[in-house]
Fold Ceramide synthase 6.
Amino acid sequence: MAGILAWFWNERFWLPHNVTWADLKNTDEATFPQAEDLYLACPLAFCIFMIRLVFERFIARPCAMGLKIQANGPQKAQPNAILEKVFTAITKHPDEKRLEGLSKQLDWDVRTIQRWFRQRRNQEKPSTLARFCESMWRFTFYLYIFTYGVRFLKKTPWLWNTKECWYNYPYQPLTVDIHYYYILELSFYLSLLFSQFTDIRRKDFLIMFLHHVATISLITFSYVNNMARVGSLVMCLHDAADVLIEAAKMANYAKCQILCNLLFAMFAILFISSRLGVYPVWILNTTLFESWEIVGPYPSWWVFNLLLILLQLLHSFWSYLIVKTACRAISRGKVSKDDRSDIESSSDEDDSPPPHQKHHNSTTNGTNKNHGTNGYLTGAPYPDEH
């Protein structure tokens, strides 16, 4: 174990040439980031998760009720043991051949069975109330941490001149403000990483998981090798747009469409300008070029920049989806969803209760089969959400 730890904490990987861990030990004159400081983030992440549960139950939920957001979810499908077995053990999206077989077995028409599967899938969706509470929690945290970051950074020299991130590096003292900022951000993203498996499942689940891992890695890397100054700029820049998207979601759930459209437009402009403009010009420029000129590259420098570039690729992917959403919103006259974070389920359209048995009129029956199957297999839009 000692050999593994020695290999992992190899000074020639983590630190610039001629710098050792002993040089960065805390003294009476100066405090530097220590890797063991990050252990505090694990219990704090659990505390943040518990605070979230309390917040959603006693603050977000009453706010949602005040906005007339209902707690009831989608209409439940009629109980049927055969269809339930197919749904749970075989497929949630039966093909045309299976639909026809079930139609003969149950003496139901195909359209009724399609509707049953659609309603059964919708049962697994969270209610609008649950979505609102989740968004309100994230909005509150992002607003707080972004406000804190702006107030802290506006007093620092590296906000106005990014070369200050590298002067006298890595012998830059750790302030209480940076320490608090880092530990809180790391704890929050750790809580998001684990709660992602219990939260509303979205179709960009893997992308978001990769994003959380990259973010946690970046925070850890930049703290351990004392790139905290540039790290604080990265965190603050990312929190800005997140405040607006969560506000837009809440407006959507509360059916305030005009406000939702306005917030989404502001979010789209801020996200694309900050992630495709400010981020590469301001952040990548200083981490790739200014740091090379002042400090020079070393192994963990390469890893840190590769993670930042990975983040830029994710920015580009999400910007494409946001533009796609904006174009659809313009054509429809309103924002209906944000493709970055749609729920991973099918449409809740046509939720009227199914008849118990099929009609025996052959003409009607044939029409239901053809139109129902074709209508379903062409696919349906996801439910409205940002």
Summary: Residues 257-294 form the longest helix (38 residues). DSSP finds 13 helices and no strands in the chain. The domain at 81-124 is CATH 1.10.10.60 (Arc Repressor Mutant, subunit A).
